[in-house]
Amino acid sequence: MTLSTEPTQASESTQDGAPPTQNITFRQYRRMVLPLDGHVFWVATGTTQTLAATLNAATSAVQTAQETASPTALTLTINASDDLKPFTARAQGLLWVGTWQGQDFAISNASTSDLNAGSVLYSGQTITAPFAAQFVDDASQLDNKALLTSSCLPAFLAMPSQPTPLTKSCPWPEGVPVFPSFAVPDDQPTPYIAVCCRPKTLAPVSMAPSHDAASKTSSQIVREGVRLTLMGLDNQQACQVRDYVRQWALGHDSVLGVVNSPVIRDRPQKNPATATQAVRKTIDFTVMYPQRAMADIAMGLIKAAAATLTRASS
Q: Region Disordered: what ranges (predicted)?
């Protein structure tokens, strides 16, 4: 349900007949990825920029089983005579967040532009409460962050850096990083791999979780489907990845077990504009593991490396 769609109140008037404008301050954030489970946070860099803009807003009431929110879609017309370069240059791993009527909003894209008319049109949306927790003022706030995921993602993130004697015959392809699904950096060059742990496939194997009263932790043996999407890898590299995962699991049989016979599938990504296809393959694994083991792997990742920025801008 749309509640309102209208220009906002202006802080100062413009020429007769022109829409009102107001000064909006934007704060820059840099993406940070937790090494323990791949969750993305945005950390303030301290850089700000104030721009004069005409702003239109449309607020909708949204209610789901787990959330009631009123996200606002925003359209900003910014004067192109301002210094837009720091704002429009989409540096990798950076995000600009503005504040309007006490609400933070993020710019998603520049939908149209007319530099001859002296303006650029942007669109964005307010950041609702569940996502506001992903924005922090200082990286130190993430130092003691607990494991967030309940899947086997930590194991797949750790695999490339934890070879075993069994993986010597099928080493991990050189220069192939692994990212969680929906956390691949902007314009990441190939080759790389995205890991998707499918929540709907997660099912218990044991009757009930075991509970450790001393550590106040519990664990349960579960089965889960995991898809690796391989971007830019040739067939030999794909075979290495598949065999590496299976051999790694054999070397960590108390942590993870592969219980299917995974097949490499070609799923080329098409680009009609250039009549080309990008090399894309998938490998689907079915794995079993005790959930507590994933927390132990995550702690190992924390000790090996602190949270690191993903590809700092040049």
A: 1-22
C-alpha closest to that of 245 among 179, 159, 168: 159
Q: Name the token pair of 194.
A: 């995205």
User: Residue 132, class by beta-carbon neighbours within 10 Å (0-12 exposed, 13-18 middle, 19+ buried)?
Assistant: exposed
- 235 and 130 inside one domain: no
Highest mean pLDDT out of 6-10, 201-205, 308-312: 201-205
Determine the Cα–Cα distance for residues 34 and 205; give it in Å rounded to an integer.
29
Closest CA to 40 of 99, 89, 100, 106: 106
- 122 lies in the same domain as 211: no
Residues 137 and 157 in one domain: no
* 148 in any annotated domain: no
- What does the DSSP 8-state code read for residue 140? G
pLDDT digits (tens, 9 = 90+) for 35-67: 666 678 889 999 888 887 777 777 777 666 666
Question: Is residue 242 located within the same domain as residue 273?
Answer: yes
121 and 159 both lie in a single domain: no
Report the alpha-carbon distance of residue 151 to residue 19 in Å, rounded.
50
**CATH no. for residue 283?**
3.30.70
126 shares a domain with 77 = yes
What pLDDT digit, counting tens, does each position of 194-253 carry?
A: 999 998 999 998 777 777 767 667 778 899 999 999 999 999 999 999 999 999 999 998
Closest-CA residue to 39 (of 142, 186, 109):
142
Q: Tokens standing for 226? A: 């995991």
Rg (CA), the chain: 24
The residues, any chain, with a CB within 8 Å of residue 113's CB and separated by 6 or more, are: 80, 119, 120, 121
Determine, yes or no, domain membership for 314. Answer: no
Pairing of strands 192-204, 178-180: parallel
The amino acid occupying position 299 is: M
Domain boundary among 142, 164, 197: 142
User: Where in the sequence is the domain holding 87, given as residue range(s)?
Assistant: 2-142
What are the two backbone dihedrals, phi and then psi, of residue 40, each rounded to the nearest 5 degrees?
A: -100, 130
